[in-house]
Specification:
The structure is a single chain. The chain has 190 residues and is mostly helical. It folds into two domains: 47 residues, Homeodomain-like (Arc Repressor Mutant, subunit A, Orthogonal Bundle), CATH 1.10.10; 131 residues, Tetracycline Repressor, domain 2. 72% of the residues lie in helices and 0% in strands. The protein contains eight helices and no strands. The longest helix has 27 residues. The protein is elongated and about 55 Å long.
Amino acid sequence: MRKDAQARRDKIVAVAADLFEQAGYDVPLEAIAERAGVGRGTLYRNFRDRSALILEVVKLRIAEMFAVIDAIHDPLQAFLELLFRGGILTALHSQKNVEAERDATLNDEWQTFEADLRISIQRVVDKAIASGNLRADLSSNDVILMARVLASSVEGLPADGRDATIRRAVDLLFSGLRPGPRRRSPRSLS
């Protein structure tokens, strides 16, 4: 792809990410094209439909998340940032991701993306485990579950309260992730 064409494509994805996060996924694609400074034809040459654009938005936000995490040298802080940012991204994008993932024409691309994401998450988890800061049985699946829990903590909150709420939820959640003797779950106490 030519540099100018790639720059236009990147601009469309960045604008779509911002608009989806500000106004929701029902933003007309024409509004995205207009804000990106391209015509509708350019948008549709790059993305055949909303599902294809959603996939690229999610890829962009995940890449941005790991760029921040990879710059953090302390394994525990990197893990906590993964929880924080993963919770925010899940809150902002998970509902439409599920709809876009159902698009059979993108199935292989979603599966590849999700497999790569799990590997990247596990890499952060493994470093934190190796540093002695996390229990040894933690996995990428557990982190995805925690991101969903964190996302649910901000449902209905305005954007200006979301970050502080998720940061507090990460702090509270983390105390149960420290290495040590297994705690009995509330169900096993009866």
